[in-house]
Amino acid sequence: MSPDSSPADRLPTDRLDGLRDLLERSDAALVITAMAAFYLLFLGIGAILNYDLAGLISILGQVTFFTAVYALVVLALNLQWGYAGLFNIGIAGFMAVGVYSMAMLTAPPTGSPPGLGLPISVGIVGGMLAAALIGLVTALPALRLRADYLAIVTVAISEIIRLTYNSPAFSTFTLPGGIALGTGGASGIGNFPSNPVRAIYYVDPSSAASGTTPVGTAVFGFFETILGVVRSAVIVDLTYGFVLAVVVFLVYTLLAQEDNSPFGRVLKAIREDEVVAKSLGKDTNRFKIKTFMLGCALMGLAGVLWQGFGTGAVYPQAFRPELTFYIFIAVIIGGAGSNTGSVLGGAVFANLLFLLPQYLPNIIEQTFAIQAAPNNFIAAVGPIAAGEVAPLLGYVLNQRLPALRFVFVGILLIYLMQNRPEGLLGHRTETAAAVDLSEGHTPGGAVRSDPTAPDDEPGGVDDE
Amino acid sequence: MSSDSAGTADGSDTDRIDADTPADTAGSDETAAEPPLRVENLRKEFGGITAVDGASFAVAEESLTGLIGPNGAGKSTTFNCITGIHEPTAGAVYLNGENIAGLAPNVVADRGLVRTFQIARELAEMTVLENLMLAPQRQQGETLYRSVLPTFRDDVIEEETELREAVWESLEFFEIDHLAEEQAGTLSGGQRKLLEMARALMTDPDILLLDEPFAGVNPSLETKLLDRINQLRAEEGLTFLLVEHDMDIIMEHCDPVIVMHQGQVLAEGPPEAIRNNERVVDAYFGDQQ
Lengths: 464, 289
Prior knowledge:
heterodimer, A: disordered N terminus, B: alpha/beta, Rossmann fold, 7-stranded mixed beta sheet, 38% helix
């Protein structure tokens, strides 16, 4: 495109090229564009399903929430697997440790099951520390062995954790000193402290009837007068989604700092060839243990923020191994080794593979006016003899589509492995250094002593 | 392979061709300075195979010592045992008088003994720049909290800036600066060898073990590298132990030369003597009689 061409002269393909350039240059633009696309998609879905304004805000809240929690845990896995090559397939277990520890620390002592009644902040930090400690216990013996042993140990520990929380033996128990605690067994824990975001809007966070804070009055009033009546609960959920987005941003920033540093460089070296890293004097076990613990702590945090406040209750069934599988798929979609790719992978998985299949049956039923889908296979296939396929279609859509998520995921995985094994952003070269390594060098000449010296072109090699 | 022939005081059957060789000096004169690297009765078994069978030798300070031998003689296994990649079955490896046998490779490297590999082990999906930036020891930013906390970030950046300059200088010297931002896995075999040597030197070692470093390197650069090795020996006191199949390099530049055969040290001495040693000739070309 010529630099002096006016916007009116630009062909649509030129504009697309300009957008592509922007997206390639700016990670923020990439994530914002992707999220805008997902918001539009789900607003469209809400419109098709004739949702009112509260429904539309609710659907946006869901998109934000699931994108954020998936992005958070995918970032944690990317640190362990994408960067350091630590094959952790016990993610669900570490998330469970985080949320259960938080629950037991914060649940009221008089509740059922009883907890310690500590503040939420203590619960969140405690959940992260507990997950990190379990990570340490898991990693210490396994990290000395080959990578596949770590995988075996983590998947085993994840199931041990889930089954322990599920066990009636720990439903309620008493620690030495008479302190009562409990996991709630198969029933789980439902007496979480209320979502801390509610404190922004309600005088008493545990009760919407307690009256609104000045912020609550202003925000609820805005939505009520400008946009019509909206349920306050959806505003709280949307706000919580944005709070999680801020947490994701902070974690992303932390991990980007860590990756773009000598520490991150050693992690990459461990992933590439641990013997070489050791032969260069790096105590790889120390790096691996720190990284594994940090990743597990972030998984614990993701568990707390996902299950702890999302539904207000936690059950062992929420931490089945398929959750771990979902997170791996999201990392593969985004591209292992890229933090921005992890956020995008989490967003793509959460929206297109997790949320969309939940809405798709309703959309198709509404679009094609499929009536009263049968609820069993015999009733679905019977009418085919009479030439009616709608019951079978309705049965598949209504009864089986969300359950077919694994099939979609499998198809996508096969496609990715064959056509783009590096994922969305795995092809990028993200240099692990705290400075731009190409600076400070003049091609074919001496090292530049003053990088700010005029008339010196940076970069030591030809640009691609 | 048998160890029956090990009958000398140091447990080997070695031709000490020149009484002034460092190994002999180290073994016979207790008042002499301890050589920076000394291997004593080193033995490494893999199941039923004895790869190194009681090897003993010493590497004198600031020397360029050659280690040669036919394929399967045990040279690379000896390197692996010295550098901690393999734990020796028996024997000792003295680094500046301290037995380091069985220590982890990172501990050995941290003490100043670094190696390159026979088949270049570049970090394939890292750039050439990253490969070299990785090498310097004890970088501030290798501590997790220093890498992320803003308080320490400026120090990390300052150190990275200094290292970057050293890395570019090294890349220019090894004539691979035009590949600086390429993924190391895309380099040719010879370029990978250069990268490995540059990376090992970036660790600022005292002793460098080079395993066939000139394989695939063009002759003009080979001369330049040998000049550099000699410069590092003279000016910075580095010691080199070199495994090489190119006899011209060994005979022209290394002194002493250690010959391994069937896991044992067959002979050691100055290159002229090694060249004319019958046992060495037999080991390489077979017994002509």
